[in-house]
Design brief:
Number of helices: 7
Order of helices and strands: EHEHHHEHEHHE
CATH topology: Rossmann fold
Strand content: 15-25%
Structural class: alpha/beta
Number of domains: 1
Shape: globular
CATH class: Alpha Beta
Low-confidence stretches: 115-120
Helix content: 40-55%
């Protein structure tokens, strides 16, 4: 059914719940592949650099944020890969999803930055409006 699954993840509780749903979908098709995208926006990138002079440490912290998702995918022995995108999360995910023709996009209803979502609109809403594939928003 869903062979190519895009999972947007930022390490938040909602994105971990979204990962659980992506795993359920992947189990339905033995040759499914999950692509996990993590978006680094300009503000996050600046903060990471200011707090940590060592780029290796920055990458390790980003990887640690996604560790619960990685652990889940490995425990289920699923085929997956990670992609780091740069830019504003909503448009970056939409562009990537539409260019790569996924069968479904799975995203949490809220991310790590609740204030930005309240003021600018949620990333999940932007994705749902603009991605050509079906979108599953997980609460």
């Amino acid at each position: 059914m869903f062979k190519r699954i895009l999972l947007a993840s930022d390490g938040s509780d909602h994105s971990v719940r979204a990962a659980k749903k992506a795993v359920e979908l992947a189990r339905l098709n033995s040759d499914s592949e999950i692509t996990v995208v993590y978006v680094v926006d300009g503000q996050t990138s600046k903060e990471d650099v200011l707090r940590n002079a060592d780029q290796t440490l920055v990458e390790e912290k980003r990887k640690a944020r996604l560790q619960p998702v990685t652990n889940m995918l490995e425990e289920e022995n699923l085929n997956y890969k990670f992609e780091k995108l740069l830019g504003e999360p909503g448009p970056a995910i939409v562009e990537y999803a539409n260019k790569n023709q996924f069968d479904i996009v799975v995203v949490g209803s809220r991310g790590l930055n609740g204030l930005q979502e309240m003021v600018l609109g949620s990333v999940s809403h932007k994705i749902a409006k603009r991605v050509k594939a079906p979108v599953l928003i997980v609460k």
